[in-house]
Hints:
- This protein is of the alpha/beta class.
- It has three domains: 7-130, HUPs (Rossmann fold, 3-Layer(aba) Sandwich), CATH 3.40.50.620; 139-335, Alpha Horseshoe (Serine Threonine Protein Phosphatase 5, Tetratricopeptide repeat), CATH 1.25.40.80; 353-522, Orthogonal Bundle (DNA Cyclobutane Dipyrimidine Photolyase, subunit A, domain 3).
- The chain is 47% helix and 7% strand.
- The chain has helices at 38-42, 48-67, 77-80, 86-96, 110-122, 142-145, 154-165, 191-196, 208-216, 235-253, 281-285, 291-304, 311-335, 363-375, 380-394, 398-408, 414-425, 442-448, 469-480, 482-485, 492-500, 503-518; strands spanning 7-11, 30-35, 46-47, 71-75, 101-105, 126-130, 169-170, 173-174, 205-206, 221-222, 228-229.
- The strands form four sheets. A five-stranded parallel sheet has the order 4-2-1-5-6, with helices on both faces.
- The model has no long low-confidence stretch (mean pLDDT 94).
Amino acid sequence: MTTKAARLRLILGDQLNASHSWFREQDDSTLYVIAELHQEASYVPHHVQKVCAFFAAMSAFAQALQHAGHRVLHLTLDDTAPFSDLPALLTQLIEQHGVSAFEYQLPDEYRLREQLSVFASSLSIASNVVESEHFYLSDQELPRDFKQGKRHRMEAFYRKMRVRFNVLMDGEKPEGGQWNYDADNRNKLKAKDIDDVPEPLLFGHDVTDILARIERHNIKVIGKPDSNLLWPTTRTQAKALLAFFCQYCLPNFGRFQDAMTGLADEEGQRKQWSLYHSRLSFALNSKILSPQHVVEMAVYHYQTRPNDISLAQVEGFVRQIIGWREFIRGIYWANMPDYANLNSLSATRDLPSWFWTGNTKMACMKHAIEQSLDYAYAHHIQRLMITGNFCLISGIAPEQVDEWYLGIYIDAIEWVELPNTRGMSQFADGGIVGSKAYAASGNYVKKMSDYCTNCHYKVTKTTEDDACPLNSLYWHFMDKHQDDFGGNPRTKMVYANWNKKSDEHQRAVLGKAAHSLKNIEKL
């Protein structure tokens, strides 16, 4: 016999916030529902480790709520398979449990927010929606700082956030006298530096049962399966990873936050894949950890360990959380749903098939893609300036780029993925997010990594058979979009250098790029 419930509260897979005001009191008449859903596991082909991580975290959260005295219904794919979508499942549960009120937290994806809004408005019972209580800025505050279609700049927003929340401030001025230490944080890793990088803190979760469910229900996934999941799926583990980062990685985080390496050990395994990065993005985006707690812990370690952690290191990290993360969210909600269709550079080329295998002769792309397939992870410069840069200068259709990024990364939820990809990386939004297109030749890769050392292609060449494809593709992109970027102060020097080259040289470069694009599957 089914026990009745006066109120049903839905918890989505990225709403695992134990500090939410919902959970301050126990009430047997309230039923919390956490459900694995086919619609969420398959709206794009997700990395198998991403699906496992969310399902494992949802299960752990359900158990934690039960231990805290709450009434929880945790449903797996086996339980939800008969239902076509989330509304169908909720309709059945409401009827089955005699529910008189339905409540949910505002989803952070437009797709889900619309689905649940329509569902709630169709109910004959009472319904209520509340904030997720996770971000620095509430949903109601976002329109104050973000307007649809308007070009916004993160730096101005970041400074306002620092002042408002009194983070790294000295009265009304920034601590240390300047807001941004980005110029100090562009070091390349040398061989000795790589040896000094601490081994990453990893976790072991047996997800054999989840992998079996994924296979049993024919969920299309990508990437390398691993029955021993390495990511934190509980608040305790996430806090341990945060403590590890602050203790061992934060002292060098800013200095090497843009650096990349492809060095392997004697067995051919990657020596490092996470470097000094925190790898907290999954815990943050699933709301296991709050951004406020993460920032407070980083600042605390900086303040109590001044000999170990400089201001430049902690500022670079704080900027990613209180600045970029909140900024990207504001851009998303100010511009959806139209933002998902923007394509200002009219890019239409198909994504090469080797994005799903890593089978390319370009060492930088091979490493970044294989790492992504192996771990569902790559840090922000790998995403922006390796895979993202290639897609940008090759003219890959932004909807295909979006799908790849949204599927392959463990932390990818549309609110954070879409503005970063379609906006920052691909400039498809025409400059709403960024003031320039982040296009680069092979010289950038050489400057910030060791990828070029053993590459099939030569980074110093442009038109020869063995020339780095990025070089000619970069100039082809800049030449093609001179009307778009020629007046930008940040790219005027680039065009001045291009226009100094002879017509013969320009034709040779553009011809090489055309050949690479025609044979993009063989690069």
